Each structure stands twice: as structure tokens, then as C-alpha cells.
UniProtKB/TrEMBL annotation:
Molecular functions per Gene Ontology: 3-hydroxybenzoate 6-monooxygenase activity; FAD binding
Domain FAD-binding: 6-346
Cited NCBIfam families: PRK06847.1
Keyword Oxidoreductase: yes
Pfam families associated with the record: FAD_binding_3
Alphabetized InterPro entries for the sequence: FAD-bd, FAD-dep_Monooxygenase_BioMet, FAD/NAD-bd_sf
Keyword Oxidoreductase listed: yes
Name of the protein: 3-hydroxybenzoate 6-hydroxylase
EC supergroup of this enzyme: oxidoreductase
Domain of life, source organism: Bacteria
Amino acid sequence: MTAVNKVAIAGSGVAGLAAAIQLAKAGVEVDVFESKAELSALGSGITLQGNALRVFDALGAWNDIRDAGFAFEGLNLRAPGPGAPVVAQLPDVKTGGPDYPSGMGMPRPELARILLAHAAAEGANVRFGAQVTGIDTNAADAVEVFVDGESAGSYDLLIGADGLNSTVRGLIGIETKPEPTGMGIWRTFVSRPDDVMRSELYYGGPVYIAGYTPTGENSMYAFLVEKAQDRVGISPEEATRIMLEESRAYDGPWNDIRADLEAGATANYTWFTKHLVDGAWNRGRVVIIGDAAHSCPPTIAQGAAQGLEDALVLTELLTGKDAVDQSLWDEFHARRLPRAAAVVNASVQLGQWQIDGDRDADAGGLIFGIAQQMAVPA
């Protein structure tokens, strides 16, 4: 017996679809409401650490995801300037354990497609162009969910996995919102040079960090992290020009990246943000997970992994207990809040040290400590 029989999920990102897969597997009736008209994923690529891969295996999606991405071990640090010499090769902690690579990259749209296919195969109903707009929580053991102003029915639980600007978060009166950290990032999706076999980072030069991650045999995403600037309204041509100019201090594979930009690859720009709901993520029969509950800069590439862990822990409790009661929520928060908080705080601290130019900071120690924490399953 499960604690729930019918669940609504707002949002079809990684956390929402992971929750849908696990609940549907257990025989729970699941409706996913996605406000976008069709499957989409912002950004060019995503880096996934081992603890995210461990969750994909629990979902039954690991084989498909492994085949669609580019697995790697370790991290290279390169110097800016002529030749871009590799100055260090750093091993990664296997945060997923010995059965998984330390990390992998893949295109975000491909990850979304695979998770959607698995959710549908398990029997979850996913509706696009359907915005959760309201709730009625007057019943003690149910929540009525309104979609585009009309009642979609009564559910045992509503999971708000609707991202940074979560509607569900506001509907339950949680006022925490994402705040800028002071950094902005340029991203582009390009072809992978043959010699790029893992993530590589360049420190120094005109931006805080330059880097790239392979996402497939023929693809990778590249990025430049700079001081946050107002880039609203610039044309695609201007975006490409800026990324080209800011990258010229970096040699090696950046020459290939610039060639792709000049040939038509597009550049996009976003700010890094942070937030953490420091307290209960639920209000009665409504709970938020993933970016709706916490977000951080991608400085240790744990954002998606934390949302996936939220979904896995929550669905484990919902399918393993016989009631949605305070003991369930206490266990959920005990297992998730400190872990997510550690990732958010470390990610923000790493960025702040770069902004401050703090050369004495023990960035390596902080990253290693978080990786060791993540190696223990949530």
C-alpha cells in the first residue's frame, strides 16, 4: 500500500519527471501539468555528477541516458594564453559509487526527451500547455488543483516541480525567491574537437572561468562566466560577437569553438541565481522540490542532481509508507534540506571567492568535501 493513490505534478523538468516515473511505477495515478506548449529545455548542455547517474539508474533510465551522453573521468585545468597548456589533471570523487562514471555531459533537450519517454511508458499522463494556476487546500486529506483557471480534480498530493519561478511556491505562501549572485554566463552548443575528452576549465584571463564539457561524440557545450551585466535586448549577432571577443584570450579547443560561433552557433546569456527555502518545503498536501525549493550557481554541477535526489527520496517515502503524515515530512526534510543547503552554500561560496579575488580560499577542499557528502546516497 502507498501513502498516495493520485498525484498531480507541476512541471516537466528533471525533478518532476523523475517523481512521475517512480510514482507511476508503484501504481500511483500521475498527472503532470507543464505550462509550456511542448517539451523544451533552456540551455545548451548539462553536466551530471555521479550521484545524478545513480538516480537515473533507480529510475530505470540510466542505459538510455548513458548512450545519449558523453561519460568521462576527471577534470583538466588549463592556463589561458598561447597553447592553453594543461596545468593540472584532477581526479573526481565518484559521487555515484564505483558503478558509474564520475561525470557526464549531454544535451539538455535529449535528457528531457528520455525522461518524458520513461514517464509515459510507466503510465504517467503528461499535459503540455497546462499551467497550474490555483489550489484549494480546505480538505484535510486532499488538494484540489486548478489548471488554467479550471478544476483539474482532487489529488492526494500536489508536487511543485515548476522551476526557479515556481507558481506553486507562491500558491502555498512561500516568499523565498531566486536572487542574483553577481555572475553571468555565456553558453553555446558546438561540435566536439577530438581531443576534448572531459570537462576542462581555464582560470584567469578576462572572465572568471572559461570552460567546456563534452555532451556527445560530436557535440559539447562551452561557457564563459563573467561579472553579471545587463544583456537584455541584445541581438543574436551581438551575443555571438561578445562571446567571440571575450573568448579570444583562450587558446587550444577555444579556436574550434570560435570557428563554430563564426559559422553560426548561437550564444545565450543568463545570470547565476541562488535561493533556498530554509524550512518546510510542504504546506499540507502540497510540496515543492528541485529548483522550486533550492537553486545555486553551477560551480559544482550539482543542481540537477539535487532535484533528482529530492524526487527519489520523496517518492520512496510516498510509496513506502501508508500515510501522508508529519512523520513522512519530517523524514523527507531531514534527508533533503541539510544536503541541498550544503550544495547551495558551497556553490555560492565558490563563486563569491572568485568575485572577491580570494587567492587564499581553499576551493579544492570545499569541492572535495561536498563530493564526499554526495557519495553517500541521500
